[in-house]
Amino acid sequence: MQTLTLIRPDDWHLHLRDDAALAAVLPDTCRQMGRAIVMPNLKPPVTTVAAAAAYRERILAARPDGSAFEPLMTLYLTDNTRPEEIRLAKASGFVHGVKLYPAGATTNSDHGVTDIFKALPALEAMAETGLPLLVHGEVTDADIDVFDREAVFIERVMKPLLAKLPTLKVVFEHITTREAAEFVAAAPANVAATITAHHLLMNRNALFVGGIRPHHYCLPVLKREQHRQALVKAATSGSAKFFLGTDSAPHAKGTKEAACGCAGMYTANAAIELYAEAFEAAGALDKLEAFASLNGPAFYGLPANGDRIELVKESWTVPAELAYPGGSLVPLRAGEGIAWRLRG
Ligand SMILES: NC(=O)N[C@@H](CC(=O)O)C(=O)O
Ligand SMILES: [Zn+2]
Ligand SMILES: [Zn+2]
């Protein structure tokens, strides 16, 4: 049987939610990942180091017995984030990034930034201290087509921001377009990107196969095939700028299968297996370890994990539903097969 041994990966973009939802999803990530960058879009958002410390304690307490999983915390940037909070975050040792959500761009982003330059004092403190800015890169203007929001963000926000603060470390999160992949590849070493498994595996046709498919709806929304191919090319290029970030984003089944369904796909239960499929399809399994286990820690200035995982080429069926408060959780590929299985 074909096997694949990798240094244990990390997830550089993850939604763990809180309370009972946290308890339901965390074991999936603990089984696979050494660490994860934990997104701060709770209700209310995690805007202070004190709130991040408390959230971190709740995550640590919810880990299964014996798990060494380490949550890497983030702050949610607002128009009013003070530079003092940034310096406190850097000094904490457990806050590893600050998240920019353009106001209204995605799930729980109502408190997000209305104009990036309103947050300039905080951004200057980040450039100074080396704390990375993690970016949901979509403009929200009503006149911009939803499929163009990422490409327009590059021109309207990313370029002016980096022109103003050229040394700021930036992670362009969950990139979905050729434009973003090319922008990051051409940028200096302080600019990197995460790529999800679902954007490597699916194009926007997946939203409409035989009818509307709410479990394939996420933000940024899936794009055309040419964009998926550009993401695969970037992820498998060997460039250290691209790394694994699942953007696994659980929502109860009833809130997705609804007249106004929530954005987000749940992939944490099969994350590394889905990435293995995408890399295998591209004939690039030899590039998976750098993408999943080495490039992220290098960018964040952390060591790679000290242990390994093993994947076996053995098909298994993803459960139709998982336990989740407020109903159930429908993972990506629910009831369907995945070609690789994580051993143990
Ligand atoms: N990706 C999503 O579609 N949803 C995320 C938010 C985000 O990452 O934009 C969520 O928190 O549900
Ligand atoms: Zn996002
Ligand atoms: Zn996300």
From TrEMBL:
Q: Which residues bind Zn(2+) 1?
A: 13, 15, 99, 247
Enumerate the catalysed reactions: (S)-dihydroorotate + H2O = N-carbamoyl-L-aspartate + H(+)
Q: Does the keyword DNA damage apply?
A: no
**Which parts of the sequence belong to the Amidohydrolase-related domain?**
11-310
> In the record, which positions carry N6-carboxylysine?
99
What are the entry keywords?
Hydrolase, Metal-binding, Pyrimidine biosynthesis, Zinc
Q: Does the keyword S-adenosyl-L-methionine apply?
A: no
Enzyme Commission numbers on file: 3.5.2.3
- Chain residues that bind Zn(2+) 2: 99, 136, 174
InterPro entries per the UniProt record, alphabetical: Amidohydro-rel, DHOdimr, Dihydroorotase_CS, Metal_Hydrolase
UniProt similarity note: Belongs to the metallo-dependent hydrolases superfamily. DHOase family. Class II DHOase subfamily.
Q: What's this chain's function?
A: Catalyzes the reversible cyclization of carbamoyl aspartate to dihydroorotate.
Protein name per the record: Dihydroorotase
Which source organism?
A: Pseudogulbenkiania ferrooxidans EGD-HP2
Question: Which gene carries the instructions for this protein?
Answer: pyrC
